[in-house]
Design goal:
Keywords: Cell membrane, Electron transport, Heme, Iron, Membrane, Metal-binding, Oxidoreductase, Transmembrane, Transmembrane helix, Transport. By secondary structure, this protein is mostly helical. It has one domain (10-268, 308-438). It has 13 helices and 10 strands. Strand 5 and strand 6 (285-286) form a beta hairpin.
Length: 453
């Protein structure tokens, strides 16, 4: 009886630890995406303002810069929480493999400080430096933000494809930290994440101005506020589709159980169709729409290729299939939806040199930001939940890495309170910034060539 009670308590702590990590990562990753994409979009707006003399660009850049400062500060808090959680929640991982994955975390810390220093210079020197020098002071922010994302995702990539070390009798004896950081999963996963960051930042920023335009704001300021980030995100979208295919092909080669869960595939087959929708019931995917041969073609570039099913693996090594399958479906569906939205805008611009003159386009633009965030979160669910039960793929189970000390549930409860306070505070400050009047020249007050029906 005592053994059963201890096992139940341990499993409860594992659930609490995974939930806490999921909440922290899911909350922080949105801010991280804004930290990667927003500086580049802001710099572009400032550069266009100085190049064209258009005050609307400069006003947008200034407002976005202030928001960047707020989001960076909040992201620093949530990022610090995540760094502590690695040691507090997963001591088994860090004690055994900490020296293997320490390099990307150390480099990420350097990138973070560079970003913080130059962000301070950029914000403080807005009216104190010549325009060209001020724009140049923002370039390190962009580079450091992208570098931070690269290093953190490289560490996570190692957990998907562990390399760069030798292990003997359960102990790491030799380490090649560069080989560990540049593991086989690093190229597709880091590129996929960085592009996703630009999509999330662009569509989120554009959605704010789409809402304002739906409410009747037609100043050039709001039109450019929508057009600049939306265009950048829309240009990234088709590239992301191809990179996503690259990442999925890596999964097919190196993590066949994850691919099988993504597709709800239980039996190893040839000429496997792609399944859209459906639910797994009694180890069978039901109610899905099949596209013949497509999965084999996408996974192996061969319509008759074999794809391994979950039944090739012990059931205790299966990830939660319905969760992974539907997260993948939602991510892909939203990705193609955002691609279609960009194509819609591009066709209208090609034909009429203007955005589509329908409220439905603005409505779609208004929800594109939330949709991009949902796709981002679903992508990380596929990546992290799809790897279960392994915290280090095929080497260490998540249950073996969790902190065995009792009380992790209290940490989860405290974290919920902290993030609730951070969320309310961040939204409040951003709304106050948005409410600050923006001076607009009389000739800029209306965009006479853009009307929606």
């Amino acid at each position: 009886m005592l053994k059963i009670e201890l096992l139940a308590a341990s499993q409860g702590d594992l659930v609490a630890a995974r939930t806490q990590m999921a909440l922290s990562l899911g909350w922080h990753i949105v801010l991280a995406c804004l930290g990667v994409g927003m500086p580049a979009i802001t710099l572009f707006a400032e550069w266009r303002g100085h190049r064209t003399g258009d005050p609307a660009y400069r006003l947008l850049a200034r407002r976005w810069a202030k928001s960047m400062g707020v989001l960076f500060a909040v992201g620093a808090v949530s990022g610090t929480i995540l760094s502590f959680e690695l040691g507090l929640l997963w001591p088994g991982l860090m004690s055994r493999y900490g020296e293997v994955i320490g390099l990307p975390f150390a480099l990420e810390g350097i990138a973070f400080f560079i970003e913080a220093i130059f962000l301070g210079i950029y914000l403080y020197a807005w009216d104190r430096l010549p325009p060209v020098k001020h724009i140049l002071s923002g370039i390190p922010i962009v580079v450091a933000g992208v570098a931070s994302a690269f290093f953190v995702v490289a560490a996570n990539s190692w957990m998907q494809a562990p390399t760069g070390f030798t292990e003997r009798d359960g102990q790491v004896v030799t380490v090649d930290p560069w080989a560990a950081m540049f593991n086989p999963a690093t190229p597709p996963q880091t590129v996929h994440m960085i592009l996703a960051a630009f999509m999330v930042a662009g569509f989120l920023m554009a959605s704010v101005y789409a809402v304002a335009m739906l409410r009747g704001r037609r100043e050039r300021y709001h039109l450019l506020g929508f057009l600049v980030p939306f265009t950048i995100a829309a240009l990234v979208s088709p590239v992301q589709i191809f990179v996503g295919d690259w990442a999925a092909r890596f999964v097919a080669e190196n993590q066949p159980a994850k691919l099988a869960a993504m597709e709800g595939l239980f039996e190893t087959q040839r000429a496997v169709p792609e399944h859209i929708g459906g639910f797994v019931v009694d180890n069978e995917l039901r109610y899905s729409i099949e596209i013949p041969y497509l999965l084999s073609l996408l996974a192996r570039w061969n319509s008759n290729a074999e794809v391994i099913g979950l039944n090739e693996f012990p059931p205790d090594q299966w990830p939660p299939v319905n969760i992974v399958h539907w997260a993948f479906q939602i991510m892909v569906g939203i990705g193609f939806g955002l691609l279609a939205l960009g194509v819609w805008a591009a066709v209208a611009w090609r034909l009429w040199r203007n955005l589509p003159k329908t409220r439905w386009f603005l409505r779609a633009g208004a929800v594109s930001g939330v949709a991009a965030v949902v796709a981002l979160e679903c992508g990380w669910i596929v990546t992290e939940v799809g790897r279960q039960p392994w915290i280090v793929y095929n080497l260490m189970r998540t249950s073996d890495a969790v902190n065995p000390a009792p009380g992790l549930r209290w940490g989860l409860a405290l974290l919920v309170v902290v993030y609730a306070i951070l969320t309310v505070g961040t939204v409040y400050v951003l709304r106050r910034l948005a409410a600050t009047p923006i001076p607009v020249a009389p000739q800029e007050r209306d965009v006479t060539d853009y009307r929606v029906e």
